[in-house]
Amino acid sequence: MLFVTLVRMRQKITKETEERASQFMKKPPPGIKIHNVLYTLGRFDAVIFYEAPSEKEAMVTSLMWADIAATETLVAIPREEAIKLLKS
What we know:
The protein has helices at about 15-25, 55-65, 80-85, and strands at about 1-10, 35-40, 45-50, 70-75. By secondary structure, it is of the alpha+beta class. The longest helix has 12 residues, at about 15-25.
């Protein structure tokens, strides 16, 4: 399953925070595949695109950051799959 997590930092990004994020991207939790992480301007500070086996694993992944960030996670469906669903 594909997920998009919107991240709003609760504190200023520090060297330790950035190191933690780097380690997470290098070695994500089992079953999680990170596709991309983008820093953004505006309401959210970052967007994470990733795959997880289920909503449960996605939730656990988001909760890993609860101490330093507020997150909102969306389930994503590839465009091609969405078009097939619309046609059925």
